[in-house]
Specification:
Layout (H helix, E strand, L loop, with lengths): L9 H18 L10 H11 L3 H18 L13 E5 L2 E4 L1
Antiparallel strand pairs: 1-2
Helix pairs in contact: 1-2, 1-3, 2-3
Length: about 90
């Protein structure tokens, strides 16, 4: 599974942090936000959860990430640019 590209903003980070706490309580699992696949893991456990609040947050997170996955982003690199490296969790394009 590909790691979703994350739109870095305050709402996105807050949502990840809150979901991470819910997952730690429900599954006794600690997910590090600095991990490359953290959004994917959070979405996976959000979908598995019986907690309706966490499931709804997973839907919201998926909607935040969806525009970038579909390539409708105005970011450089949304086309066929090569990724040179990852800097602070974001790809740096050629």
């Amino acid at each position: 599974m590909d790691t979703p590209q994350s739109p870095i903003n305050r709402d996105y980070v807050r949502l990840l942090m809150v979901m991470r706490r819910f997952i730690k309580e429900a599954f006794n699992l600690s997910i590090r936000i600095s991990d490359e696949d953290a959004p994917t893991q959070i979405l996976k456990y959000g979908d598995k959860s019986r907690n309706h609040v966490l499931r709804e947050m997973a839907i919201e997170l998926r909607q935040m990430v969806k525009p970038i996955q579909n390539g409708s982003s105005a970011e450089p690199g949304a086309g066929n640019d090569k990724i040179l490296r990852v800097y602070r969790g974001r790809p740096v394009y050629e």
